[in-house]
Amino acid sequence: MPSPSSALLEIRGLRVRFGAQDVLRGVDLDVAPGEIVGVIGETGSGKTTLARSVVGLVKPSAGAIRYEATDLVALGDGRRRRAFRRSGAIQLVFQDPLRSLDPGVRISQTVTEGLAVRGRLSARERRMEAERALALVGLGPELLERIPGDISGGQRQRVAVARALVTRPRLILLDEPVSALDASNRGALLRTLGELRDELGAALVIISHDLASMAGVVDRVVVLYEGAVVEHGPIERVFAAPEHEYTRLLLAAAPAAALAAVA
Ligand SMILES: Nc1ncnc2c1ncn2[C@@H]1O[C@H](COP(=O)(O)OP(=O)(O)OP(=O)(O)O)[C@@H](O)[C@H]1O
Ligand SMILES: [Mg+2]
């Protein structure tokens, strides 16, 4: 993939091996500041592994991951990794918000957990930050006193995004943020994500198994197939003239309305 020298995130030749299985087989990916990139692929293609590698939860067997001037692979898993994590520059929103939100903990506490990185804040400041983060994802302050079991699935997914926002990240990786939602919630959350880019200037990587749902949302897509990038390019180009057979199959399965959205 051509390398914009201004890349925020730059991944080169990333390989991940679990036991005897090559899960990522030399993945290249660039993300520019403020850009929205879709990573598309079927189940098991390595999407979550890619995201987890970026935040240091998976150790690559080869390849480079750079965030601005920082070599993320070289951070290891000790003190330097923790310091980088505390900076909050990169946030991962996990695939399953029900599992990643603590069922017994109020939304207010969940959303403000990441604020520890900003030093001691008063209760009032924490409350304001929580309200701001919820407002950014289109939720009202009345949710703050509730627990995850007492809000809807769509609201939980938004809370998971809100939690990622309090550290003011410059890069947010979202692992299947809309796949558990019905069509109307899916469209609404994807629009909200687009607005977040505009308001915060954050770059987003949106992982999905559904190429069609990325129409009108992402600037570029990367198609992963069995751990390798088989196609990448601006979403309009990929929709209009897919180069790889696998991408053509994905598009053939897409509803016509989604294809019209990028026409
Ligand atoms: N910790 C692990 N140990 C061993 N194998 C793993 C581990 N994590 C993932 N895998 C394997 O790596 C492959 C890719 O998994 P990954 O979760 O990255 O896929 P995915 O594209 O996110 O799939 P899905 O769309 O179902 O979420 C799968 O075959 C999976 O079983
Ligand atoms: Mg996954």
From TrEMBL:
Organism: Solirubrobacter ginsenosidimutans
Keyword terms: ATP-binding, Nucleotide-binding, Transport
Name this polypeptide is given: Dipeptide/oligopeptide/nickel ABC transporter ATP-binding protein
BP GO annotations: transmembrane transport
Keyword Nucleotide-binding attached: yes
Pfam families per record: ABC_tran
GO molecular function: ATP binding; ATP hydrolysis activity
Similarity comment: Belongs to the ABC transporter superfamily.
PANTHER family listed in its UniProt record: D,D-DIPEPTIDE TRANSPORT ATP-BINDING PROTEIN DDPF-RELATED (PTHR43776:SF7), TRANSPORT ATP-BINDING PROTEIN (PTHR43776)
Transmembrane segments: none
CDD domains from the UniProt entry: ABC_NikE_OppD_transporters (cd03257)
Lineage top rank: taxon: Bacteria
Keyword Transport: yes
Domain annotation ABC transporter: ranges: 9-251
InterPro entries, alphabetized: AAA+_ATPase, ABC_transp_ATP-bind, ABC_transporter-like_ATP-bd, ABC_transporter-like_CS, P-loop_NTPase
